[in-house]
Amino acid sequence: MTSMCAMMVGCGIMILATAWFGLRRGGPWAFWALLLSGLVALVYYFVISADYARQGASWADGLMSILELSVPLFLGIIAGGIAFRRGLHAKVSRD
Question: Where are the domains of the chain?
Answer without folding.
Answer: 2-86
